[in-house]
């Protein structure tokens, strides 16, 4: 079942992406709806799978995860068995916060957060000791200009 987004739905989604802690009353006021109508919209958006939980963004420096590394991986392996094992290993490392299969010269891209270069090196070593990888290229981010931006709904 697909849910066709209208202007109120989009306004709700934009507002909650900016601040998911808004009370129902504040959200309804912000989008120009009654509180009951807003509640029904929220329920419909959740039921349709458009809203998937609520999260909190942390200040990386405050939690001592100042280093962001983009890791590109190339492999010779493309079997389902290898992919299943690869996914399990990558997903078992909590510092890997984003994980994509990509098209182009490389096969996968990871976003890794770490305390510093030594911590990243430990994560890297954990990855390569458990996974047969052809090529790994890492890029250290110097500055997050735009990070975790809201989706343009």
From TrEMBL:
InterPro entries in the record: ArsR-like_HTH, AsnC-type_HTH_dom, Dimeric_a/b-barrel, Tscrpt_reg_AsnC-like, Tscrpt_reg_AsnC/Lrp_C, Tscrpt_reg_HTH_AsnC-type_CS, WH-like_DNA-bd_sf, WH_DNA-bd_sf
Record flagged with keyword Magnesium: no
GO biological process: regulation of DNA-templated transcription; response to amino acid
Keywords per UniProt: DNA-binding, Transcription, Transcription regulation
GO cellular component: cytosol
GO MF annotation terms: sequence-specific DNA binding
Pfam families: AsnC_trans_reg, HTH_24
Keyword Transcription regulation: yes
Residues annotated as domain HTH asnC-type: 5-68
Protein known as: Transcriptional regulator
Lineage: Bacteria, Pseudomonadati, Pseudomonadota, Alphaproteobacteria, Acetobacterales
